[in-house]
Automatic annotation (TrEMBL):
Alphabetized InterPro entries for the sequence: NUDIX_hydrolase-like_dom_sf, NUDIX_hydrolase_CS, NUDIX_hydrolase_dom
Residue stretches making up the Nudix hydrolase domain: 41-170
Gene3D superfamilies membership: Nucleoside Triphosphate Pyrophosphohydrolase
Lineage: Bacteria, Pseudomonadati, Pseudomonadota, Betaproteobacteria, Burkholderiales
Name under which the protein is recorded: GDP-mannose pyrophosphatase
Protein family: Belongs to the Nudix hydrolase family. NudK subfamily.
Amino acid sequence: MDKHLRETQVDSIETYNGHFLKIQSDTVKLPDGKSATREYVKHPGAVVILPLFDDGSVLLERQFRYPLDQVFIEFPAGKIDPDEDPLVCAKRELQEETGYIAADWKFVCTIHNAIAYSNEHLDIFLARGLIAGERQLDDGEFLETFKASAPEMLAWVREGKITDVKTVIGAFWLDKMLNEQWPL
């Protein structure tokens, strides 16, 4: 399927092997028979949690992100460890970052946030039946949590106060689910 669009790997070189990310440089054969180079970031994948309280509000985080030198509003999220089930990762990340555990978990969707230069995928989960507890932040992790209403969050997306793509997409999914347009 889609053979007329496919590129075929001819050669592959790992150009960078970091603690978290790797950079790959591949030579590919294009559909017209010519060659090209494709450089991309290899990422282990991550999860995003949409923590929904019984009153319809959501739990969000404020966290400094070094590459862009600013604090962002985000849904809780985290990297999937090798051979870790994404739902297990989501449960771990929610508790570590926020202290909350959830009684009810639903898989929402998988998104690919940077398809031109990364193989990263994010699995989004809805977490309900939230119970507060002690958070256990990783060393070097600093963030604040707060509650907001879904309409507030959508207004922040529209106003450009929320620009993180996983949070924007999560906000749109949450809005559709809360309005029963996209039932799970």
